[in-house]
Amino acid sequence: MGKINEFLTQIDNILWGDWMLFVLLGIGILYTVISGFVQVRHFPYIIRKTLFDPIKLNQKSSTEKGTVTSFQALCTALASCVGGGNIVGVCTAILAGGMGAIFWMWVAAFVGMATKYGEIILGIKYREKNEKGDYISGPFYYIEKGLNMKSLAILCAFFMVVQIIGGNFIQSNIVSGVVKDSFGVPTYITGIILVAFIFTISVGGLKRLAHMAQKITPIMALVYLLCGLIIILINIEKVPGVFMDIFQGAFGLRAVAGGTLGSMMIAMQKGIARGLYSNEAGEGSASVLHAAANVKHPVDQGITGVTEVFIDTFVICTVTGLIIGVTGAANSSFEGNVLMINAVASVWEPLRYLISISLILFCVTSLTCQWYFGFTGLNYIWGFNVADKFKYVFPFFCMIGAVLKIDLVWTIQDIALALLTIPNIVALIYLYPQVKELTKEYFFSDDYINSLEK
After folding, report:
1. H/E element holding 128?
2. How many other C-beta atoms are found inside a 10 Å radius of the C-beta of residue 59?
3. What is d(CA 194, CA 221) in angstroms, rounded to the nearest whole number?
4. pLDDT digit string, tens, across residues 8-23
5. CA–CA distances in Å: residue 335 to residues 30, 90, 219
6. CB-based burial of residue 449 (10 Å sphere; 0-12 exposed, 13-18 middle, 19+ buried)?
7. What's the CA gap between 55 and 272, in Å, rounded?
8. What's the pLDDT tens digit per position in 259-279?
9. Which residues pair with 68 in a beta bridge?
10. Smallest Cα–Cα separation from 228: which of 307, 325, 309, 306?
11. CA–CA separation, 270 vs 319, rounded Å?
């Protein structure tokens, strides 16, 4: 097992080398520019349109067959990306790259807002209906139709299935570790419970998933943020020092290893890699869950990508990083999967259980969404009849993930994520003119101008 782990680590280091970091940042910068800095210029409109208006209108579900509401799609996407990466992923990045990794998460998130915006637009533009009459899309659809590259599209769909299985392992592994550490439950028992629960959601299809996400996602996020803010306020005098550590660590002024440049690159690599895993910008998965949104224009749903990354990274991941910073947990001997729990317990022991429950909810809701990614990839390769069986198989991967070693799980996930991201990068480079044109069309339309006057 040691040799396998060493080999996989070498592959991981090649795929997530400096070249990948600069390419992803470059894609984000490209889409930031061609969208007219959409995440800055239109941010107030985006937050109102994607969060406040849906809550005010209180639309329960979409009336059109094969679709969900825009807000349900956003909640489902958040349920998917707000998972273990927001807590354990941030902890792992800090342990490996220092507090400076948080800064590079922010950088990746800022440009990632525009990247995800573009991915969702392309997903809506090239979506189609499957045999059941449901809208379905993903990076493989816009790779085939936009680039006319069927072979690359098939590879992309295959890597998405592999990546989702790896994601299942990670979330299941985190849940089993947390439950064992906090409540003393054996990992195999947790695995059995996860199999049963995920099976119940997956057999209900996208509609059941969307209804669950719409109800649970806002609550679980608010509970976690409230707990985090309490800890930060208790240690408010330490917050300025934490921000200083973040900025100094980001540029190697507090070396982790290998001198100034070396520590800066470690912080950058770990921050961007874990940030991408958390907010999923660049891998193309956003176009899958947002494809069923009932919208008139692709940009109507594209702007939800800005909101999604903002909540995921700038809000939730930042709170996680600040908690680790103010409690000094980064200097402890705990591993990434239990570091956060012990950090909050050092402030007030009962908070251990609240954070444990939050982490479990994050991972479980993420798991409930992940089967749909695999379904979409299989639907593209082999059609609906084969893909539909995946919802019966996917839950059983939870049992394997629950008992795996955490280091191996993260390595497998990093490799699968990179192999999924590369074909999507090719598509984003070639199809950016279409996103640019649709952006111009939307923000100069009468509907948008009239909405600003309300």
Report:
1. strand 128-129
2. 16
3. 21
4. 888 988 887 778 878 9
5. 37, 12, 27
6. exposed
7. 32
8. 445 567 777 777 877 777 677
9. 293
10. 325
11. 18
